[in-house]
Amino acid sequence: MLQYFKFLLLAFVLGLSPMLMAEPVDINSATAAELSKALSGVGASKAKAIVEYRDKNGPFKSADELKKVKGIGKATVEKNRAVIVVGGAPSAATPAAPATAPPPVAPAAAPVPAAQ
């Protein structure tokens, strides 16, 4: 019985290992090559379809919107949900805003003694 339990535990760990090692991928900025590499069950043609859909319809608002792409179903989205990131697509026309420090905080004024 203990041998059976060890086998099940090993099978479970090995089954999870690809997901644990997978790098997150932003579906709004990744290339077709990056998508096919990062997403399980997504080959070159499906990855190309994702990019074409995104180019035609604008950025994805959620991972579930991938189901609107021909060839991508619920099972594929669920299998990859842990690595899917939905960020904004960077625009070449809009430069990134420079990081700014928060404004300095003025020291508190000393209390004024009350008139007697």
Give your account of this protein's structure.
The relative contact order is 0.15. With 116 residues, the protein is mainly alpha-helical. Mean pLDDT is 80; it is low at 90-98. Helices cover 41% and strands 3% of the residues. The chain has a domain at 31-88: DNA polymerase, domain 1 (Orthogonal Bundle), CATH 1.10.150.310. The protein has helices at residues 2-21, 32-38, 44-57, 74-80; strands at 25-26, 84-85. The protein has a two-stranded parallel ribbon.
Please summarize what this structure is.
The chain contains four helices and two strands, in the order αβαααβ. It has helices at 2-21, 32-38, 44-57, 74-80; strands at residues 25-26, 84-85. It is flat.
Helix/strand-derived category reads mainly alpha
Order of strands, widest sheet: 1-2
- Gross CATH architecture of the domain at 31-88: Orthogonal Bundle
Question: Assembly type of the shown chains?
Answer: single chain
Average residue-wise pLDDT: 80
Query: Which shape, going by the Cα principal axes?
Result: flat
CATH fold label of the domain at 31-88: DNA polymerase, domain 1
* Unreliable parts: 90-98
Report the count of strand segments: 2
CATH class of the domain at 31-88: Mainly Alpha
First and last CA, distance: 88 Å
Number of helices: 4
Question: What's the alpha carbon Rg, rounded to whole Å?
Answer: 25 Å
